[in-house]
């Protein structure tokens, strides 16, 4: 397809909506939008990025300023949860003012639940799965004089034929690898808006590997890769290090956050990366969001020291439960004993801050088993003062996952409308899985909120001393003893803090 065939000139706008409260503390550059725009930018099409997490109150004006007669397509990246409400508002606003502009949704939510997205009349197309090539083809189809590209041939594309009839093209069953030199970072004009827990670092999310070979039943990844020949594939080590070098030299990166599903499937791959970082003389901090207990169990102390010496200061590990029965049910492949041993091993490496993830309230989980998770959390914090426990998740069954089939057996009905999906957020008070008793839900809610306090998180994050953070720290100092009492003894009665949290979550201005 040559550039001359495009109706001249064509402009595309890519929008990052607001996400949940978590997203206001970890605000990464919207790389989903950069990846998906990469081929268009290479073909010379003008692409603008609008991140409504920044200056949220004036997003309508900012968008109106960007739209002109050449704007043909607007893409929005959508995760399940709060960003759905935001994306509906944005899409309806566009359609009400500029009905001819095509609106395309992509990202995790449309990938897993496309039908309910197509019920929303303001959305014209969905791209499921990896987006760079399909989005390029769609824009070509919509904007170019060359009609060789048929909608039917675009992988992962979905659209509405009539109010009740939708077409879903099959997705390509392989990973999308984008050359780091083609990622159009320059579309982001001010990098200073992005942050990782207010650490003051210039953070860039980077892939070192795609996919995951494990099959935890609650995770969307095994469903996404079910038909892939290879479930895990690393990027060439030279590319990973070349990418980091470019980000450091050209954009001032000080912290690389590996967003891989799982970075440590092959320990020698990470070792090669850190060796190469060292030999290139790159001084940069590293964080890994994808690590497993059994993988850390395989690491010698020397390996962990080497990771730390290469700049690693953050590792996220999925622990999930303090009950061996639940760990088995969710196919985690680890035991509570393994978790405790790994935590003690990591306690010997204080330079690395470990973040543990938990999920409570699986179908068949008893309140006693949830209490075992509570006890494990207290033990982990006791044994390793540098660990942090991420606020709890409740299981959110995604269509196609094993958890989904299990949950259906226990009376689960998936949200019927897009609006209902927007309540599917980790912070949402009103997401109470049907298989849990009222008492169990209230117990989990108490744990969820207390978890912000029990491990002195806020003081481990080096938050700056702006007004919001000072207020937060005062609240934490006052409330921590109460939270610890509630957590330790399971006191969930008269939980007015839960209401206060919900109100704050709704009305707190976006962290900007
Ligand atoms: C960084 C990250 C975050 C960041 C912010 C992400 C953001 N965009 O705002 C933070 C930390 C805030 C976050 C929070 C959460 N996250 Co998260 N997160 C990720 C992570 C690690 C990387 C996302 C990313 O940047 N990927 C790289 C880019 C290149 O990929 P991509 O975004 O998928 O984009 C590609 C396609 O999806 C598509 N595409 C994307 N957007 C668009 C738009 C258009 C128009 C088109 C055509 C195509 C398209 O094309 C892109 C290129 O191929 C992924 C796991 C992963 N490895 O992907 C989980 C992941 C997205 N998160 C997930 C979850 C569950 C959560 C939380 C619920 C966790 C929690 N307990 O708090 C919250 C929910 C937040 C919310 N609802 O608002 C799930 C998604 C579930 C879902 N259905 O939405 C994932 C997939 C992890 C997993 N396997 O479970 N997350
Ligand atoms: S190891 Fe992580 S990415 Fe892989 S299936 Fe389990 S939860 Fe998902």
Key features of this structure:
binds iron/sulfur cluster; binds cobalamin; seven-stranded mixed beta sheet; about 500 residues; pyruvate-formate lyase- activating enzyme; alpha/beta
Short synopsis of the structure:
The protein is α/β, with parallel strands linked by helices and 512 residues long. It contains 21 helices and 17 strands.
Topology summary:
Elements: E1 11-16, H1 21-25, E2 26-27, H2 31-42, E3 46-51, H3 59-66, E4 71-77, H4 82-97, E5 102-106, H5 108-112, H6 114-118, E6 125-127, H7 132-143, E7 157-160, E8 166-168, E9 195-196, E10 203-206, E11 209-211, H8 221-224, E12 232-234, H9 237-251, E13 255-258, H10 267-279, E14 285-292, H11 293-298, H12 301-309, E15 312-320, H13 324-329, H14 336-347, E16 353-358, H15 367-383, E17 387-389, H16 402-409, H17 418-421, H18 438-454, H19 457-460, H20 467-489, H21 496-507
Parallel strand pairs: 1-3, 1-4, 4-5, 5-6, 10-13, 13-14, 14-15, 15-16, 16-17
Antiparallel strand pairs: 2-9, 6-7, 7-8, 11-12
Helix pairs in contact: 2-7, 9-10, 14-15, 15-18, 18-20
The structure holds cobalamin (B12) and iron/sulfur cluster (SF4).
Number of helices: 21
3D shape: globular
Count of separate structural domains:
2
Specify Rg, calculated over alpha carbons: 23 Å
Q: Look at the structure and name the CATH superfamily of the largest domain.
A: tm_1862 like domain
Helix content: 40-55%
Distance between the termini: 41 Å
CATH architecture of the largest domain: Alpha-Beta Horseshoe
Low-confidence stretches: none
Strand portion:
15-25%
The CATH class of the largest domain is identified as Alpha Beta
**Helix/strand class:** alpha/beta
Largest sheet: 7 strands, mixed
Distinct small molecules bound, one entry per kind: cobalamin, iron/sulfur cluster
Rounded mean pLDDT score? 90
As laid out across the biggest beta sheet, the strand order is 3-1-4-5-6-7-8
CATH topology of the largest domain: pyruvate-formate lyase- activating enzyme
Number of strands: 17
């Amino acid at each position: 397809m040559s550039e001359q065939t495009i109706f001249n000139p064509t402009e595309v706008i890519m929008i990052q909506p607001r996400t949940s409260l978590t997203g206001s503390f970890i605000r990464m550059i919207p790389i989903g939008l950069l990846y998906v725009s990469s081929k268009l930018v290479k073909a010379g099409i003008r692409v603008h990025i609008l991140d409504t997490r920044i200056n949220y109150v004036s997003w309508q004006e900012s968008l109106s300023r960007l739209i002109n007669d050449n704007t043909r397509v607007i893409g929005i990246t959508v995760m399940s949860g709060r960003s759905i409400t935001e994306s509906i508002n944005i899409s309806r606003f566009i359609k009400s003012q500029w009905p001819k502009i095509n609106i395309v949704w992509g990202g995790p939510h449309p990938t897993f639940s496309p039908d309910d997205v197509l019920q929303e009349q303001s959305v014209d197309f969905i791209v499921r799965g990896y987006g760079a090539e399909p989005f390029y083809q769609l824009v070509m189809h919509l904007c170019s004089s060359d009609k060789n590209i048929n909608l039917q041939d675009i992988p992962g594309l979905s659209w509405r034929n009539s109010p009740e009839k939708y077409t879903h093209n099959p997705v390509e069953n392989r990973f999308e690898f984008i050359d780091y030199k083609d990622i159009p970072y320059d579309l982001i004009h001010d990098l200073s808006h992005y942050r990782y827990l207010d650490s003051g670092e210039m953070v860039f999310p980077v892939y070192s590997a795609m996919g995951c070979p494990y099959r935890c039943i609650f995770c969307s990844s095994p469903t996404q890769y079910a038909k892939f020949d290879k479930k895990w594939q690393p990027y060439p080590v030279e590319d990973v290090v070349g990418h980091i070098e470019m980000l450091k030299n050209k954009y001032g990166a000080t912290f690389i956050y590996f967003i891989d599903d799982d970075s440590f499937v092959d320990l020698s791959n990470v070792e090669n990366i850190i060796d190469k970082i060292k030999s290139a003389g790159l001084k940069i901090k590293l964080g890994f969001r994808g690590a497993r207990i059994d993988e850390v169990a395989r690491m010698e102390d020397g390996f962990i020291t080497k990771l730390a010496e290469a700049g690693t200061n953050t590792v996220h590990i999925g622990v999930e439960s303090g009950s061996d029965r639940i760990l088995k049910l969710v196919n985690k492949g680890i035991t509570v004993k393994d978790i405790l041993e790994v935590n003690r091993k990591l306690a010997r490496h204080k330079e690395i801050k470990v973040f543990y993830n938990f999920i409570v309230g699986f179908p068949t989980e008893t309140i006693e088993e949830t209490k075992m998770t509570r006890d494990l959390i207290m033990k982990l914090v006791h044994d390793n003062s540098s660990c942090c426990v991420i606020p709890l998740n409740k299981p959110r069954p995604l269509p196609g996952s094993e958890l989904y089939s299990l949950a259906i057996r226990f009376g689960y009905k998936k949200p019927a409308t897009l609006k209902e999906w927007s309540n599917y957020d980790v912070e949402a008070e009103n997401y109470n899985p049907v298989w849990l008793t009222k008492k169990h839900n209230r117990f989990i809610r108490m744990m969820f909120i207390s978890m912000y306090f029990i491990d002195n998180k806020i003081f481990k994050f080096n938050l700056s001393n702006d007004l919001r953070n000072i207020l937060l720290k005062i609240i934490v100092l006052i409330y921590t003893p109460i939270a610890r009492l509630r957590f330790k003894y399971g006191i969930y009665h008269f939980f007015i803090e839960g209401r206060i949290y919900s109100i704050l979550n709704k009305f707190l201005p976006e962290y900007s």
